[in-house]
Design brief:
Blueprint lengths: L10 H5 L6 E5 L3 E5 L4 E7 L7 H8 L9 E5 L2 E7 H9 L7 E2 L5 E8 L1 H4 L4 H11 L4 E5 L4 E6 L3 H9 L1 H12 L47 H9 L2 H7 L2 H6 L3 H11 L29 H7 L22
Antiparallel strand pairs: 1-2, 2-7, 3-5, 3-6, 4-5, 7-9, 8-9
Helix pairs in contact: 2-8, 5-7, 8-12
Pfam family, one: ACT_7
Protein name: CASTOR ACT domain-containing protein
Amino acid sequence: MPNDELGEDGSNMAAQMEHLHNVGVVPGQIDLEVLRGRYVVGHASTAKLTSAAWIVTQALLFSEDAAFGGVILDDEGVSLVVEASRADMARRVGLGDALRMDPNVCWRALHLSLGQTANDVPGIISHMAKALMGDGVSILHYSTYGTELFLVREEDLAAALRTFSSQELRQQLECVMSHRNEPLSGPPSPAQPDLWKNGGNRLELVEMDQRLYIARLKREYFHEVSRTLLQLFLYDEHYHHQLLPPAEADSAQPEEAALDNDAAAVVPNENAKPSPPEVESGSAPPKPPPVTLPPVAAAAAGGPPQGGTPGGGGGIAGEPPTA
């Protein structure tokens, strides 16, 4: 897209913000598309994951109004990128106490498609991120299985597109790609400022004690496994113990031990004879105790979370809790 189509003040771009844009950053190698939808970024702490179960479920499901959504889980809780209308709905039904977000700050998603040459160049995304930051554009970067996405504030969209359309950035990226087979450059110049944490400590990279896998699931199968995905995000052993009250957490058995006990219970013993349950004369066999779903599983299954959530109970996927 030529720069003269954008206008000095970005007014032409602002008038077209609701339409899809295609920008050839480096034609044939780096192409950019502005995805439809307006997005809000939110966060729910680990202690409030059950209360935020409905909005997490919505983030895990595809929306016809949005082309992108994000869910990231770490030790501090869950970070979400959801379509603005869903964030507004979560706020209106009373999830504001569980989900920290600013509904007045909306983001747009920029999808980058890399050709084979660009994809093989280390740091190609970093060059584009630096160009955006140099022009005063704040970004959130998401790198997934086969795509790159930049989130930019809605008011910065025109400036971001001007940056991606600039001849200067194109020349820089073409130069980087032309030297892709050369050794990486040396350490930064002494004039480059060091990065520091609060308290005067240097920033350090810390290796997490985890083995991670990257998987991609096709859209048409996503709804079929949404409940399983929700449990993977919210109900592994680590988070299960954190969500339980202290007394219950101390008495809870690890998941592996429970599985071992269950397995042992079904192993046949040739020397033992089965003993029928004791039943009083004339009475029916005892019924098994009712199965009680935990709050998050109940919400995912379509029932209200036990114990309640701010603003009401849960609902079926796609509907908010009732006030």
